[in-house]
Amino acid sequence: MIRATLRGTHVKKNRRLQAKSVPYVNIENNAELMNNLKEILERKEEEKCNKSIQEKYCDFVNTLKTEVRKVYTNNKVILSTKTTQLLKERKLLLQDTKNKETRKEIAEISKKIKEQIRKDRKQRRTSTLQYHIKKTGGIKKAFKELELKKHWILNMEDKQGKCSSKRVEILNIATEYYKDLYKSKNGKLTKTTMDDTQDSEPLPPVLKEETERAIITQKLGKAPGPDQITNELLKISMPVIVPKLTNLFNEIIKTENIPEDWTKSQLEYVNEYIYLGQLISPTENMQKEIERRIANTWKKFWSLSEIMNNKEMPMSEKRKVFNSCILPCLTYACQTWALTEQQQNKINICQNGIERSVLGVRRKDKIKLKRIKEKTKFGKVQSVCRKLKWRWTGHMLREKKEKWTRIITEWYPRENRRSRGRQPKRWEDDFKKVAGPEWLRTARDRNKWKALEEAFVERQAVNRGDQPNAENMI
């Protein structure tokens, strides 16, 4: 007699495999998708007479997702024909695993399959990156297409400081936080009510033309929302879904009930005060901003190391990525900078380090920067900064509207004196070296200001003895 205990264990699947995102939709050849959508939506329209708006909206979204997955199943083929052939051979050998020779053959084929799959994935990533770099000059859409996972919150702390990593507990902590956030002083949840002074006339119903216009004006290639429905899917299924969406919108207006997905939002908390992408600090504002720009640039570079450090990627593609993704990160908001020589050297050192890393060169190799820059041919960060600053200044001063940027630039204190000793560098000191003390007047003349641009970019100072001006340089 044998006594035993049976225990069932739940096999935990990888979250990466559970992400059921909507596949990529091709704009052309969608007759099968249109027919399926038309039949299912018409059948469900008859069934959901007594359903709520939330249920109708969820049915509509789920129908779109399921029908797209049925039609577009193999739109992202990763494995090559050689790999599929090896998989078929191994499948035939697995039918007879008793023989030792066949087991050896299975082991050898499995090794070949692993190596071939790695090559296929690498080849697919490289070809996808090259395609998007040539098309748009950026890599955002390429990484979005190659990404196969969802981002999850790893853990969260509650009021007592207890850290939780389970999904249910995290949702409860977030729910309690927002309940406390929107509570009034009396301890009751605040409810939004319609203002009595608002116009009491009923809203006109939504027309089919308005729904079509809203769908047509959406741009392609954009990230979908929480419902994972892309603009491509809305456009190709527009003849079928426009009447259904119009009826749904009118019912929402009539009942004043909206789906829960429309009320979702995301909040982001930061440790430092950053306004419009620039660090706001009462002390050493410029120094901290330059260090932050350099740090963000290196982060961006290492996030693109798959492209920039790839020996198989041509230099022309790397140059495109640098000029369109890395250089704007380093020169963001450079129009408002007043750089010292030390800060300018920091920015130049950052670019030189990036170019050495692209070529796989180190400082101890003692290769001159001139040779390195001849190979890379990247845009010079110092020239880009000065060119952007010069052009933005001329545009700002020629603007007829009263704006704070021009008011602050033309403003002087009443005493009009500076303290003794060496002064900190001002934003306008660079302009005075090239355009002279009357640079504000020169900037209002577009032709004169444009003629001085090359001299400013190349840092050619004005000779005070000869006193050249913009008129003599034209």
UniProtKB/TrEMBL annotation:
UniProt superkingdom: Eukaryota
Name listed for the protein in its UniProt record: Endonuclease-reverse transcriptase
